[in-house]
Design a protein that fits this description.
Elements (H helix, E strand, L loop, with lengths): L7 E8 L6 E8 L3 H6 L2 E8 L11 E2 L13 E10 L5 E5 L2 H15 L2
Antiparallel strand pairs: 1-2, 1-6, 2-3, 3-5, 4-5
Length: 113
Amino acid sequence: MTALRRGDVVLVPFDFTDRSGVKWRPAVVVSTDRYNQETPDVLIAAITGNLRAIPHPGDHLLQEWQAAGLLRPSLAQTKLATVEATVIGRMLGRLSPADLAAFEHGLREALGL
């Protein structure tokens, strides 16, 4: 896979928060390009097509979900994880600049930054 960039939408195996299983799902890369180049890990945030999911402070309803390679309207969630880049299945697309900026704002809100 080519070098990952902040805002890339990828397919990854995500653990359920109760650790009862794993599901392949889309995620957005939130780590910086430098972080992605200098470490074997990638920081990601979950994306869900379940628009009725339990809301988290900072979640963002993606406006340009088709351009991001998603199959239906989706929500970028402030549910964060760290994965090795080698477990990423494939690239789906990329968040638009407006969606990425809005989600970055949500992350700052969720993390109190």
